[in-house]
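Re: that chain you flagged

S.,

Sorry for the slow reply, it's been a week of failed gels. I finally had a moment to sit down with the sequence you sent. For the record, here it is as I used it:
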Amino acid sequence: MDWLRVTYRLQVDATSAAARAAEIALEQTVEVPRSAIRDAFVTDQILGRVEDVVPDPTGAQLATIAYPAAATAGDPAQLVNVLFGNSSLHPDIECVDMSLPTSLLERLGGPRFGIAGWRDTVGVHDRPLTCTAIKPMGLAPKALGELLRTFARAGIDVIKDDHGLAEHSFCPFEERVRTCLAIVDEVADETGHRATYVPNLIGTPRTLFDQLQVAEDLGARAVMTSPMLIGLPVFWELCQQHASVPVLAHPSFGGAQRIAPALLFGALFRLLGADAVIYVNFGSRFSYSPQVCRAIADRLKADWGPLAPALPVPAGGIAVESASDVVDFYGRDAMLLIGGSLQVDPDAIEARSREFVEVVRRYTSE
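Prediction finished late last night. Pasting the structure tokens below so you have them in one place:
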């Protein structure tokens, strides 16, 4: 029988950790007291099993619990439910790691394009990729398109919608996508550089799939969405059953759960189909450490059975002036996302964008 193993950080003392772990094993599977289980099949093939409880360097306790893969039903929603459903409601528990059997990896699929697909889409295979976002929210499609024109002329590889751009009355989705893709073509004719424009998909499932269809019909070569906003099962369905282009995952709302960033962004997003994952970088306006960022990037790229690697996309307040350090930290297989730093001087947006591009392109000669 196939088993998955999940590790939790318990904010309890060592004397009560084993009992707390046993409670989690019950909660995440049968959700009844142990004394209520009288069926041998439930005991042997459904009930979670505590395998290990060890001290954590933080002073907490780490408990590893095995769950039968059959409990997940091979379904993305039920997998998350088994990983950290009811137990997420307990403030003393954090879900920090998981190990899945090959049967579940094959069932859920992982990236359909991955790093290689992104590189083929962009046409760059020998260096890190450059990325920025068109914003702020409130600009009309024409204004956002002109900003995209500036970034594309500077040579930026990937230019995405800001994650806050939706089906706004002041910036309708289809008009925005049509305008931006037309400008991509114009700049390609003018300079020979074809940027990859990435529309943001957000809304109800029907809205998402309609937006995806519109974007693909208009010629978009990649799309972006926020898995935690639209729901992880919907994200899986979008990636595995609907999208014919690479999908970039945005981390919005990803800090609202007690799930370790490397597990959520590095493993779970990849498992469900993200071809590239944005996450906040160290030294930015967010608080992730270099160690956490390294762990996310490593999980996205590591060998993981049949799953393709996904592209790390560090972001979140990176400045042009620090771009070389970020490139050195992540190396070749990353896409560096710089947003607001390119726009701090309205008269120097193209110049700062070109500086960003040159910093990253120098990596190919080093």
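What I noticed first: The longest helix spans residues 173-191.

Talk soon,
D.
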